[in-house]
């Protein structure tokens, strides 16, 4: 099958600097206000330079709980599970969750058992993840619904952008 990273739409965006700059702005794991600033910038060159600066700032930064500042992960653990580094997903109650996907986090306490119903990632099950220190909702841990099914990665974390701050 075709890999998401090589989809014709994404390849087209990579060839067109204007579209590419807008795609980067929407894909970076930034709060919505900072993303909006990038999207509203005049000029592709200025937007791309601001995006590069934002990415440099993120390299190996410590990601903390936005409520209590407990260390949660490193920005180097961010990976792309979809066409972007995260995404906006809607749960069954109609709430929007803007998440970033991470390979590993620490300082999380899982709540409940893995659940496959309404999972945003086919083949995975989700479990609620809260900050171990303060109990605030961080996001979810996603694990293979069927152990040994060959999904890669076999587990990852979807953390709400609003639950994270950069140290």
TrEMBL record:
Please report a single Pfam family linked to this protein: Yippee-Mis18
Q: Please indicate if the UniProt record lists Disulfide bond as a keyword.
A: no
Q: Which residues form the CULT domain?
A: 60-167
What are the record keywords, sorted?
A: Metal-binding, Zinc
Superkingdom classification of source: Eukaryota
Q: Tell me a Gene Ontology molecular-function term this record carries.
A: metal ion binding
Q: By what name is this protein known?
A: CULT domain-containing protein
Origin species: Chloropicon laureae
């Amino acid at each position: 099958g075709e890999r998401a990273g090589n989809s014709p739409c994404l390849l087209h965006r990579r060839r067109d600097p204007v579209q590419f700059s807008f795609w980067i702005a929407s894909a970076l794991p930034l709060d919505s206000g900072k993303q909006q600033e990038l999207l509203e910038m005049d000029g592709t060159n200025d937007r791309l330079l601001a995006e590069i600066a934002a990415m440099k700032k993120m390299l190996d930064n410590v990601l903390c709980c936005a409520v209590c500042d407990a260390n949660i992960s490193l920005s180097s653990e961010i990976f792309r599970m979809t066409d972007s580094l995260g995404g906006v997903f809607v749960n069954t109650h109609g709430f929007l969750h803007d998440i970033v996907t991470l390979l590993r986090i620490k300082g999380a306490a899982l709540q409940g058992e893995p659940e496959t119903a309404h999972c945003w990632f086919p083949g995975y099950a989700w479990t609620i993840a809260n900050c171990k220190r303060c109990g605030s909702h961080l996001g979810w841990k996603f694990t293979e619904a069927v152990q040994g099914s060959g999904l890669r990665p076999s587990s990852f974390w979807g953390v709400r952008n609003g639950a994270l701050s950069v140290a």
